[in-house]
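Let's do one together. I've listed all components of the complex below, 546 residues spread over two lines.
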Amino acid sequence: MALSRWVLGLALFAMPGLAQAQDLTGTLKKIKDTGTITIGYRETSIPFSYLGAENKPVGFAMDICEKVVDAVKKELKDDTIKTNYVAVTSSTRIPLIANGTVDLECGSTTNNAERQKQVSYTNSHYLSESKYVTKKASNINSIADLKGKTVVSTAGTTNIKQLNERNQADNLGLTILAAKDHAEAFLNVETDRAVAFVMDDILLAGLAANSKDPSLYVISTDSFSKAEPYGIMLPKGDEPFKKVVDAATAEIYKTEGPELYKKWFQSPIQPKNINLNLPLSPALAKQFEAPLDAADPDAYIR
Amino acid sequence: MDKIVDWFSIFWQESAEGTGTYAYTLLLGLQLTLEISIIAALVAFVMGSIVGVCRTLPSPLVRRLSGGYVEFFRNIPLLVQLFLWYFVLPELLPRDIGMWMKQIPHANFYTAAVGLGLFTSARVAVQLSAAITSMPRGQKMAATALGLTTRQSYTNVLLPMAYRIVFPPLTSELLNLIKNSSVALTIGVAELTQSARNMDSYTFQTFQAFTAATLIYLVLNILVTTVMRRIERGVAVPGMLVAK
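Okay, and this is what the predicted structure of the assembly comes out as:
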């Protein structure tokens, strides 16, 4: 009797699945116990996370998150885990991660040191740079070509600040217009009042794609800033969960990062079949090859 | 006291635009506000006078045209008008003229100044024509009886009185004009309100930025009111208007 109990105990200990179940903590335990994983999505962060056809959340970050969910299922050896979607906004995303309502926030959230005090980030999925959009006809190929010309940006943004700094540092002699919002700044280029509009590349791509004739515009390869990383947020200080997610995202980026990028940034996307036509930046290509989760923009210069 | 000094130390910090301190940014904004207001006031006064007089002339055609002018500028919001002048008008003109308009240095500044002036001129015109028609009919008849032409009766008899009558409402219009100049920020003129907004978005010191803008507008408009009162008293014709 005593022996059989001992054998049973040994057998239980030897079963890796059971032993692991007892070790689970934090988010992984919560997912296992409740049988659901909760994903936070954005309603209008095109093309990262937004409501597409049939009001279903889709996007570049959503695709990545779906694969992360698969990895979590595999880790927990439980295929019955359901995915629960919760809409978040710029102001609710951090509190909802911090209080455990949402397990993964899949959107266009900048990874910075200030936010890392409250949440963690997995490997960055996008690097947003301050670039400019011009008309193809104006034949501007570099920042140096802008010399002496009129350039517009949006009042009160960091982009206009960087533009002013570069103007002085490089002695470009630019006339800088400050438009009240992005749409109006773009209008200044559309009507030839300014040759270029300086803004985050992804916002420029969206504005150009939605303009009357997207084929007229081209987004620069030169940039006015270091690349700011966008990351998928997860609860802070949950190492086991972060380890699973990090491994999953690293794997996704390495194997199908460029392919996913092409799907969302260089092909027609739902719901209106608009093509953002945004080339893959060298920095992001590097990031897909060797993923990082750093908040410091300098870390991505390599 | 120390806390107050601390609060307002932001004004002596180097601004994010790299053009000087934030106090200097606001002063540059004030300068643009003043320049726009002065140009706009001149446009409003000249155009308002011409159209105001036209509205009281005997010719029905002239009256209808000047009436149309007033309805156009009075019934469209100022914000929309500035957009029309700045973004729409150059597209409607022949391409070369449109491009020339866009290439004028500080095109947005002049658009704002003239646009604001035209908007205000419609209001001035209505006030002036109301003043002319409010005067006793005998004035015009006496001028005609003296053998004065229409032009002479306006310049020598009607207008000198009419301007005195509309002086107080004109002061109000001038104050409105100074406040309305903030609309210029929508076409990218960094006047006082835009300067305060820029300061706010770079420093997040909302309270300080807008307190400063508020005080500057207040002081400016009190100064204008005081000066206009002085002028009003100086040009008053004893016994003709409300006795003071």
